[in-house]
Design brief:
The protein is an alpha+beta fold. It has 4 helices and 3 strands, in the order βααββαα. The chain has a single domain, classed as YefM-like domain (YefM-like fold), CATH 3.40.1620.10.
């Protein structure tokens, strides 16, 4: 997902919500909703949202693994698989 969001005034969103929703859903457009020139919300399609959530969850997983490694709470992979055969 690249940062290609277009700024759009909140009043325009109110007046054209159906059109903007269609553009977000079907044309993969993203919008930064602004009030008085300041960003207040984001409008994006469900696919972009799901991709963003997946990336955030992956990043959280990586950070968690880094914390475990820093504490030294590691074990050989084979031992882990032996304790969690459903993951093998």
């Amino acid at each position: 997902m690249t940062s290609r969001a277009k700024p759009v005034p909140a009043m325009r969103v109110r007046d054209n919500l159906g059109e903007l929703l269609s553009r977000a859903a079907y044309a993969n457009e993203r919008f930064i909703v602004q009030r008085r020139g300041k960003p207040i919300a984001v409008l994006l399609g469900l696919g972009d949202y799901e991709e963003l959530v997946q990336k955030a969850e992956t990043l959280d997983d990586i950070r968690g693994m880094e914390e475990v490694m820093e504490r030294g709470d590691t074990e050989p992979f084979e031992d882990f698989l032996a304790r969690n055969p459903h993951l093998a």
